[in-house]
Predict the 3D structure of the following.
Amino acid sequence: MDLTEMLRGSMPLCATLNMRGVTWTAELVEMELDFDPALCTSGGALHGGALMALADAAGGACAAANLPEGAVGTSTIESKTNFLGAVKDGTLTATSRPLHVGSSTIVIETELRRSDGRLVGKTTQTQTVLRPR
């Protein structure tokens, strides 16, 4: 199964927003979202919610790639995004890396960059590790 198909199957919002998987390892997850006028706010820029959705999906995939033994998944319990610029065309890329991998929480940092490489957002999120009940 291809990475994009797997991500869209496990997180249906990825399919709804047409996100693509590029890289999925424990050290690095990369996902992409193309500019779409249907995802914009006033002024023709991608809506912050679309940017945060991409960051959350990439961060969740990174946390999933770092699950400790016996865990069955993760869930975002905290997320903070700083927006540094607008996206008005091209492709938005999310690059996620783990900052902390523990037995009960995983902390991920995600950079959001425009096609020209400019940093437009930075997200730090904490994922709780889910275990079978």
